[in-house]
Amino acid sequence: MTSTGILYIILGILTVDFILERFLEYLNHQKWSPILPKALEGIYDQEKYHQSQNYQKDKLMPSLLSSSIGFVATVLMIALGGFAWVDELARNYFDHPIAIALAFFGVIMFFSSILGLPFSYYSTFVIEEKYGFNRTSLKTFVLDKLKGGLLSIVIGGGILALIIWIYLQTTTNFWWMAWLVIAFFMIFMAMFYSSLLVPLFNKQTPLEEGELKDEISKFAGKVGFKLDNVYVMNGSKRSSKGNAYFSGFGSKKRIVLFDTLINDLSKEEIVAVLAHEIGHYKKKHTLSGILLSLLQTGFMFYIFSLIISNPLLSEALGAKQHGFHLGLIAFGILYSPISTFLGLGMNLLSRKNEYEADDYALKNYDGKALGNALKKLSVSSLSNLTPHPVYVFFYYSHPSLLQRLKALQLIK
Q: With 273 labelled, which of 113, 186, 309, 353 sits at a CA distance of 20 to 30 A?
């Protein structure tokens, strides 16, 4: 295999991936219809259904333009030696491999962020604003970008530097030592994400005493789930869309409710949503998900360790000197078909887990309340309730609303 051959494979993978994504979007678009399907009667009215269709269409064109520009930019960077040029630029200022890699990715991520900024702004302040979802101020938008960028530099840069340092110290044990670093980080974040990172962006306050908390405590006691940490997050600071999530293990586990969720749902519907989240914990979905992610990460690092030292990876990108960072770029693209295949399996498992968590809520609390909550959340966020099955297979980590309602035996 020559560097030219690797270059053609890289460009081929990028092209096939781009075409596949556009084809899936086309299939999904073909499912749209101005006529309210019978299956949606009682969930959407005709006016709300038209609004949801228009919302999906308005999101499609910016998404298509953004992905097309990203694809063209990536292909040009590879074909015209753009990555090699940034590598040379970094080498003009730094000598140490870690410093070169950090400078290289710093330049790439900076311009990537600049490229995506107009689309992020348009999505937030034009599309989301048009449909009444946006509650983000310009100040919050800017601060979110700055905080996110700083976290990427500190956390992402720190982990990258540590992995390169391990690689420089020993190529023989590189893959499993790097794997241990990432494994520790993943487990740490699973336990402390909500208490360490979320407060940088949102306020979380303990759920106030009252009927809702009493109902939650009553249900938790009924199913033997020790729950001391129920928090309300000011999601309305950015969007009117409601949500809830479960995080952590052991004494660090907590359930977080968006304030928008509390405002939109009844007491019984909120508890039904929590019953679903507790179902994930009881069925050990969170633990198994992390274990599977760790196994995938270990497999990826092992494959990476087999080829990272090959100078052909850097040469394929037009560079004269081999660098870890260039090899990482090339490997990321070469590995993407495997990553896509594994992702399909993870999505399949995730959808199965969602059905099981719904069933847990049905058997231990109230399936009808859960169904009503899912309907309200879908309608209030103008979700696409008629996605193409192939599109669902590739992209959805959750079953569609109609699939979940059928499994709950609320519709035929």
A: 186
